[in-house]
Design brief:
Length: 202
Amino acid sequence: MRIGYARVSTVEQDTKLQTDALKKAKCDRIISEKASGAKTDRPELMRVLDIARKGDVLIVWKLDRLARSVRQLIETVQLLDDKGVQLRSLTENIDTSTAGGKLVFHVFAALAEFERGVIRERTLAGLASARSDGRYGGRPPALSDEDVELAKTLLVKGETFEKLMDRFSVTRSTLYKYGLRRHPIETQKPKAKRQRKKTASR
């Protein structure tokens, strides 16, 4: 099936120029959309991609009707390639159903890989720079070492968990995660008694 896709922005209201060209290209079905190409949410284009099947051809008047950025165009072309759908642009005379036109998919795939590589390198470089400055990624700890020591001291003095939770703005499970337990001195007393019993039995 030959599917035609026409798009105009909200400023432009007429798709006649595009639809006339798509009709001349003998499209079996033409879907029009009035949405900015900069928007990622283009429901009619998503519908085109949903109904297109392997072996179908998506025809547009110009590539800028399909996307408004190189990145968006790369992503859309990759979706078509993954589904086995060919792409034809009338103005740029691009037709991926031909032997020469298949090169377009390879070029876009190479651009996508290049972009991923650049992003990866920038991310790694940023992390390395942050580590050299003593900054590390991830969520900061809920309690510092000083907070933990203070919490232990307060527990020994009889502070309740509820007051500690309010003081440090943390949950009970967070206090447990840092090894804090209710009345740590009292939890050690039974151990001492058991040790004395063992000594006496000897």
